[in-house]
Amino acid sequence: MLMLIFYVGKERYALDCSHVIEVIPMVSLRRVPQAPDCVAGVLNYRMTMLPVLDLSQLICGSPSRCTLSTRIAIVEYRDVARTLYCLGIIAEGMTEALTLSESQCVHQGMQLENAPYLGKTIVDDRGTIQCISLENLLPFRDRVELLPLEVKRVE
Amino acid sequence: MTDNCWNQIGVCGDRSCLELKTFVHCRNCPVYSTSGRNLLEREAPSGYLQEWTNLLAQKDEKIDARSDRSTVLAIVFRLGREWLALRASVFKEVTRPCIVRTLPHRSNEILLGIANIHGEIIPCISLSKFLGIESPKEAVQVNRETRKIDSYSKNIKSLISIETKQYERTIVLEKESKIWMFQVDEVSQTYRCCQDEIQELTVTTHNLTNSYIKGIFNLKDRKVSYLNDDLLFDALDRKLF
Fold first, then answer.
1. Sign of torsion, CA A30 A35 A36 A37?
2. Is the terminal CB of chain B with fewer CB neighbours within 10 Å at N or C?
């Protein structure tokens, strides 16, 4: 499987590329009032409004620096009810994709209640990579609810 | 290691770097690629954000044109002079020509026999006979005339046999666990075509071949007949078993 690698702080994280539609450069976003800190804003992505999360803010509490390698991955996923959701994810150092085998993925032996988005761990020659599980990326369902993709289309 | 070691001890310098023995060229060395990646750790220049914001806010006409209309992925192949296409999802495999063994009392001009593909016994048909398309040999004659190979080579026959042999392929189709294979003279490419690119045939041109043709689309300067895989599988099933 192909994994998109990015950095939060000094640590490497990975997203399954099968969920990634496109990786775009950092753009200016419209901030949403009253939204939690990790919601960086909304993005006009080819006439579709998408919510954008900042992973640095979500994981270590400081916003991503604005460098050329800080990019937005446009991702989509389906929940249990097969509804399609689409959002943008900001992370630093998004310059690389690695082909990894399923056997390199191991459970990290614990599940955190306040960080359910942390998935399996990948071990390679440069260390370990933490996989992000998109379905559980929004730990605060009661505060932010994503709407299915069709609803947000601007005509 | 200094900042630009490749200019001092690497391939652009005096080549004294010990790592060169392992990596041969600096571009294979992690120090070099890490430095390259580090260029992206610069602050985004002014105007960069705004430029991309504007670009991404626009509707992408190309993506839109494709995604708004439903498309089919087809694989284009040649039988004699005819260019045909079938939906890519019914393709199980495209492989080299293989030996077809006849079935006593069962083989005929359409059902050629059976063949062994990866240990699986698969019935082999002649699609050109089934569709009533001229046999490949006649087609080669035509090809020779049209391509005017004669003028280039004295040894035409050997040249043509090499040429046709090189492109011959076996196609294995699978749909709802029914598997068929047939030989084609060439498999050219996969092509994603929009539904409205496929022009339907006029009623007056109906004959046996045409009944399996869903429509025709243009691919460069060729007319490609897009076959109806449902009908084809149904008919093969009915007629041969």
1. positive
2. C
pLDDT in tens, B190-236: 888 888 788 887 665 556 566 788 888 888 888 898 998 888 888 88
B37 touches chain A (CB under 8 A): yes
ipTM, two decimals = 0.79
Q: Which of A6, A12, A43, A47 is most worth mutating to test chain B (most B CB atoms within 10 A of its CB)?
A: A47
Give the pair of three-digit tokens for residue B27: 């571009």
**Angstroms from A51 CA to nearest CA on chain B:** 14
Contact B185, B136 (CB under 8 A): yes
Burial (0-12, 13-18, 19+ Cβ within 10 Å), B67: exposed
The number of C-alpha atoms within 13 Å of A88 and in the hemisphere containing its C-beta is 27
Angle between helices B136-147 and B156-167 (to 10 degrees): 120
Residue A148 lies in a domain: no
- Please state which CATH number belongs to domain B71-240: 2.40.50.180
Contact B96, B202 (CB under 8 A): no
